[in-house]
Amino acid sequence: MAELLPLDPDQLLTTTRSVRKRLDLERPVPLEIVREALEVALQAPTGSNSQTWHWIVLTDPELKRKVGEYYARSFAVYSQNQAPRDETGQRVASSAQYLADVMGEVPVLVIGAIYTGGDLPAGNQSGVWGSLLPGAWSLSLALRARGLGSAWTTLHLAYEKEIAELLGIPKGIHQGVLLPVAYTVGTDFKPAGRKPLDDVLHIDGW
Where would I find the Nitroreductase domain in this sequence (predicted)? Predict the structure, then answer.
């Protein structure tokens, strides 16, 4: 069992960041550590306790390289359509560009997917993704507790069909998130700046 960082629950929740430039691309990540974190993630809730999620863990260099190429292609389009950014936005953009450049070199890629049996519903899809995304976030937290970092990404979904064919993902399984996983350079992450609670809090109505 991996040694856990000395973080209380609030520290874990407030210091689990999207890690990009501080991903250690050189240090191998044992598959057993990823499995251990996924065992924790499987305790997350799913609608009607359906547990229809699937987790595709990539360690093969060639598969990672190909997924990384799709991701970089999608990021190039995304970045061209972004409005001018302030200083904070520029830092985030630089970090995101770095991740796009090295996605295929990250030690482990994890794709979270869910069984739907067919096409996604045309209307509100919260019932679908609400049965996958809590588990993916729990995975991020479990990785952080073990000294690893990840970054929540979805840009690969522009090429969901191609990646499904590459990885042999059957029809009726929809991908929802891609998490690059690596040990972090240092573990001293801090809470991020956020809007004041009262700016977004509504009690008994809007």
Answer: 15-182
